[in-house]
Amino acid sequence: MSLKAEKRSRGRGEIPRVLVVDDEADIRELLDLTLARMGLQTACAGSLAEARALLASQRFQLCLTDMRLPDGLGLELVRHIADTVPDLPVAVITAHGSAENAVSALKAGAFDYIAKPVSLDQLRGIVKSALDLPGADPITERSVESGLLGESPAIVQVRGLIERVSRSQAPVHIAGESGSGKELAARLIHKLGAQRDHAFVAVNCGAIPENLMESEFFGYRKGAFTGAGDDRHGFFQAADGGTLFLDEVAELPLSMQVKLLRAIQEKRVRQVGATAEEAVEVRLICATHQDLKLLVEQGRFRQDLFYRLNVIELRMPALRECREDIPSLARHILNRLSLSSGRIPPPLTAEALAALQDYSFPGNVRELENVLERALALMAGDRIEALDLNLVPTQAGGSTSVASGSLQDLLDQVERQAILDALKQTDGNRTAAARQLGVTFRSLRYRMARLNLNE
């Protein structure tokens, strides 16, 4: 029975069935009672062998399995289900504080995890999420809406991971270069998940002055400080029930990282000027183009916060890794740009498409859109020629070509020279150099450390 048919059948009154797998009788009884009170049917197994037998003879809409079983690991059951019943969502019960096991389970195909001792509120939330998963629209259709297009292996893999991740409540860290579509991926996770009917709140952490961060994130009470004329919600309250997306999370100062960690751990926030905390429930997704592990090693990002945010890591591929997708992406972008300006989308000549596929696109999809928008505005004929694209080969110092080294080496050379030039023009004043380069002081400091320019 297909997932759609199964949902229609359930809509006619069929009671969802849950498979509970745990070697502890009291845990099985607790889960059985809790699920029965939710109006669900259960079948219980105390081992991998019993679970496999039940899966072979019955259909289930959800599986809850312990990580450690007498005849193996819950991960084996997760993989077995992924191979034999791919439509069946699985949640894994892990020992308290075993983040490594939780991550392994999610990567194996589980959609969420529950830490022991089992929180019944969390269990109910996971069950409700699993049995209400969106199944009507294929992920590719949602991807078109969100702009995450392409059929290259890298993009197909990302879309598959997004589909699995969307079923979970676990925090997600999206890594990738600037312009690679990190926010699009976050929005797609939100649209496919249980929070889709609630708010998606996107925050650029690098754009908030440090002295305003606490009030922006947690809100404030009237009279809390000069200018606080009314009570105001922060980002957490605005995203309550939905998704909070923290872009460029590496830009958060250490003082704010401490407060963010507490809010995530306690699921409670206190407005500036308030005496009591209030409960908030948000799905947390963060993104950065920087290497968070390196920042942790350098002491510029808290290790405990890193582990909280990096439960699931999703890496967005650079456009140069998906060159076969460039023609379809270019046509999609041209159609959108043309329709918004009320004109017929012009075709790209074969030479223009070849030029786009040969270009390195250090700015990724964002740069591709910029190139096409400029070509659309300046094209002389009724089609876009290669010359209309005005693509300049990536070079460093005007003489080093792509053939002489890796793209990252060339980009590092360009970045290093730009920083050195700015420091020279500002007599070594890093604050002034950062302003001249159009980046934050923290960002400049990170880039100098990465390029060994601090000596």
What does this protein look like?
This protein is an alpha/beta fold. The protein has helices at residues 3-11, 25-37, 48-57, 74-84, 99-108, 120-130, 139-146, 153-166, 182-192, 213-218, 235-238, 254-266, 292-297, 303-309, 326-340, 350-358, 364-378, 386-389, 407-425, 430-437, 441-450, and strands spanning 17-21, 41-45, 62-66, 68-69, 72-73, 90-94, 112-115, 172-175, 200-204, 243-247, 268-269, 278-279, 283-288, 312-315. The protein has 4 domains: 3-130, Rossmann fold (3-Layer(aba) Sandwich); 139-315, Rossmann fold, CATH 3.40.50; 321-389, Helicase, Ruva Protein, domain 3, CATH 1.10.8.60; 406-450, Arc Repressor Mutant, subunit A (Orthogonal Bundle), CATH 1.10.10.60. A 5-stranded parallel beta sheet has the order 2-1-3-6-7, sandwiched between helices. Strands 9-10-13-8-14 form a 5-stranded parallel beta sheet. α3 (48-57) runs parallel beside α4 (74-84) and α8 (153-166) crosses α9 (182-192). The longest helix has 19 residues, at 407-425. It is globular. Residues 1-13, 133-146 and 395-405 have low confidence and may be disordered.
Task: List the keywords.
12% strand, 14 strands, five-stranded parallel beta sheet, Helicase, Ruva Protein, domain 3, 455 residues
